[in-house]
Amino acid sequence: MKIENKMPINTQIELMDRADSENVALSKLLFQSGYTYDSLRYIDEPEIDDEYMRPIETLDAIQKNNDGIPAVSFFSGAGGLDVGFSYAGFNNIVSIEFNEVFCNTLRKNDPGKLVIGPPQYSGDISKRREIADILLKEGITIPFDGVFHGGPPCQSFSVAANQRFNKGGDNFKRTGFDDEEKGTLIFDYIWFIKEFKPLAFLIENVEGIADFDKSGRIQSSLDDLQSLGYKITKPQIINAAYYGVPQKRMRWIVVGTRGEKPILLPKPSDKATPCGSVFTRQTEGVSNHITREHTAESIRRYMQLEYGGRDKLGRVDRLDPRFPSKTVIAGGTKGGGRSHLHPFSPRTLSVRECARLQTFPDSYVFTGANARQFTQVGNAVPPLLAYKLALAIKEAIK
Q1: How many other CB atoms are there within 10 angstroms of residue 38's CB atom?
Q2: Which long-range contacts (CB under 8 A, 24 or more apart) does 20-26 make?
Q3: Is the omega angle on the peptide bond into residue 70 within 30 degrees of 0, that is, cis?
Q4: For the chain, where do the domains classified as CATH 3.90.120 start and end?
Q5: What is the per-residue pLDDT across 267-295, written as a single tens digit (0 to 9) for each?
Q6: Which residues touch 115 (CB under 8 Å, ≥6 apart)?
Q7: Distance CA 7, CA 345 (A)
C-alpha cells in the first residue's frame, strides 16, 4: 500500500529550515502552508503489502450482547475489562477503583454504574471490610450469582514499568510482594473472591508476576479457592497480539468457575495481528485525538528512522505496520504514558490512536489532562482480549 497526501520531502525540509532560521514554531508554518503533522513524511517509506493493511477485528464492528449477567470489577482502571465484559453480555453493576481520574472516566462512559472510588469512597481494596460492606449494601449477595474480574496493580512485578533500570542494579524496582502499597493487592482480591464466592472470577496481571511466585504463594491461594469448589485454569501467559489485538502485550491469566462445565479459554490464532490498518482509520471528529506539535528539531530526527527504529534522544520507536505495535506504555501514576511514533507520519501517536491499539471502541471517552489519558490507556487490559475471555467464562457458567 502506498501512503498518499504527503508533502514533497523538499517542501518539508524547507519548512523545517524556515522554522529554525526564523525562530518560529513548525506548527505555525505548517498551518500557514495548508499542511498538518500528518502531511509530514519519513525519508524511508517502503511500500507495504495489502495483507498487512486489511481491516482487523474491532469492538466497533461487534454487536453488544445483552445477557445481563452481573459483574463486579476490581482495580477497574479506565475500564478495559469492563468494556470487554459488557460487549460479551455482562452487566458491570459495580466498579472499584482507587484513582479519581480513572473513576471520572468510568462514570463518564457508564453513568448508571456505581463506581466505588474517589471522591465519595476510597476505592482501596486493601480496606477489605469497608469495601465489602459497601458491596453488601449495594445488593452484592453471598454467594454472588455473577462474575468478579480484575487486574491488581502490576508495577511491582512489571519489567516494562522499570525498564530504565538494569535488573542487576541497585535501582531496579521490581519489588514484587515486598511492595507495601501494591505488592499484596492480589491477595486482597482473592479474599473478596473467598468472601463473596462469585460464580466465576478472572485474575489478570503482567507476565512478570510469575517470577515472584517461586515460593508458591499465589498457587497456595488458588488452592484455597479450589477447596471452595472452584474449577481453576492453570496460570498461563498469553500474548494479546494472537487474540486480535494489534499490539504485543503479554498478560498472566487465571480463571475460575463454580459451574459444571470445564473452562475452555480462547485459543490463539496462528499469526500475530499487524497494526498497520489502525492508522488508516478515519480520525476526523473522534474524541481524544490531539497530536503533539513537535519542533523541527524533533521531526528531523524522527524522519530518519526506518520501520522499527528508535529515536534514542526521545526514546520513542517508529512502529512497523507489518507487525503488532510495541506495548502501549502507561508511564508513572503522576505523569503520562510515552507513546510510539506513527508508522507513516513522523510524529507521536494521539491518545485515540493508542486506544485503538488497545482495542477500545471509538465511542469510549477518556477524561482528564492529555498526559493522564495516556496513563489510563496504557494501564488498561485490551477490551477485545477481555471480550474473548468473557465469552469463554459465559460459556462455562451459562
Answers
A1: 17
A2: 20/296, 20/297, 25/293, 25/295, 26/293, 26/294, 26/295, 26/296, 26/299
A3: no
A4: 9-55+273-378
A5: 999 999 999 999 999 999 999 999 999 99
A6: 76, 94, 95, 96, 97, 103, 106, 107
A7: 11
Measured CA angle at 230 (ends 229, 236), to 5 deg: 155
Q: Identify the three-state secondary structure at position 168.
A: coil
* pLDDT tens digits, 317-344: 999 999 999 999 876 545 455 689 999 9
**More confidently predicted of 262 and 304:** 304
Q: SS3 for 33?
A: coil
What whole-number distance in Å separates Cα of residue 392 and Cα of residue 236? 15
CATH class of segment(s) 69-271+382-397: alpha beta
Reference 318, options 339, 340, 289; nearest CA is: 340
C-alpha cell recorded at residue 343: 508508522
Q: What is the pLDDT of residues 12-60, one digit of tens each?
A: 999 999 999 999 999 999 999 999 999 999 999 999 999 999 999 999 9
Spell out the alpha helix ranges (H) of the chain: 9-21, 26-32, 80-87, 100-109, 128-137, 185-196, 217-227, 296-302, 351-357, 370-379, 383-397
Q: How far apart are CA 386 and CA 157, in angstroms?
A: 21
Q: Name the percent of the chain in helix, strand, coil, to the closest 5.
A: 35, 15, 50
Residues of the chain with CATH 3.40.50.150: 69-271+382-397
- pLDDT at 262 (0 to 100): 84
Closest CA to 265 of 82, 151, 391, 149: 391
Cell numbers standing for residue 301: 530526527
Q: pTM, whole model, 2 decimals?
A: 0.91
> Which CATH class for the 9-55+273-378 domain?
alpha beta
The DSSP line for 89-156 is: TEEEEEEE-S-HHHHHHHHHH-TTSEEE-TTTS---TTSHHHHHHHHHHTT--SS-SSEEEE----TT
**What span, in angstroms and rounded, lies between the C-alpha atoms of 229 and 132?**
21
Cβ proximity of 366 and 351 under 8 Å = yes
